[in-house]
Design brief:
With 195 residues, this protein is of the alpha+beta class. Helices cover 28% and strands 28% of the residues. The protein has a seven-stranded mixed beta sheet with strand order 5-4-6-3-2-1-7. The N and C termini lie far apart (51 Å). The longest helix has 21 residues. The chain has one domain: Jelly Rolls, CATH 2.60.120.
């Protein structure tokens, strides 16, 4: 019970921090603080490739509109500085080789669910990732260390070739529990539609 109450308090706190950070101008969809200005400007000038993927389990496919992070710069930025990620959307990280280790939440202001996928498209691990705000006025270096320490909880413990970040709670709204996805859950890609 305590864990659930503490988690809810953290989520409410992070929501309030996000609303406060986003309330005074800036670029739409991005947190308004000096550390986010260059990321927001870069992504508005050079948006990431978009795709639609499916999370397939049995005869059910849940469609997700994603931004694709397939090069080191976009993979490093991930969903940093976003003010929100709409339900039914997310970010797909595509690696050219097996990757390992956790993702982190440095300079990320919204809770995220992550699913790591192996080379066969099956689930290699999952995690609920909470924002890692700089609540105590740490130097950027100390803030990074703090967020890296928290990221140890998000390590899938297995290699992966793709990772999918989704808005926290979206899977649950779709009837899936991030901690117990069906064993047959697969990542499915759909061909790009040329318009």
């Amino acid at each position: 019970m305590y864990h659930r109450v503490a988690s809810m308090r953290r989520i409410v706190l992070f929501a309030l921090l996000t609303i406060t950070a986003c309330s005074s101008g800036g670029i739409d969809g991005f947190v308004n603080n000096p550390g986010c200005e260059s990321i927001a400007k870069h992504l508005t000038e050079e948006p990431l490739r978009k795709a639609t993927i499916g999370l397939v389990s049995g005869d059910t496919t849940r469609m997700v509109d994603v931004e694709v992070a397939d090069e080191p710069g976009s993979q490093t930025r991930g969903l940093m500085c976003r003010a929100n990620v709409p339900y039914g959307s997310g970010m797909l990280f595509e690696f050219n080789e097996l990757a390992s280790g956790p993702f982190w939440m440095f300079n990320t202001y919204i809770p995220l669910d992550i699913i790591y996928f192996n080379s066969a498209g099956g689930v290699a691990g999952t995690a609920v990732m909470l924002p890692c705000p700089n609540e105590n006025g740490l130097t950027e270096s100390a803030w990074r260390v703090h967020c890296l320490e928290e990221a140890a909880e998000y390590d899938p413990g297995k290699p992966y070739t793709n990772a999918l970040e989704l808005p926290g709670g979206w899977l649950l709204s779709e009837g899936l529990d991030i901690d117990s996805l069906p064993e047959d859950t697969q990542l499915q890609r759909f061909p790009a539609v040329i318009r």
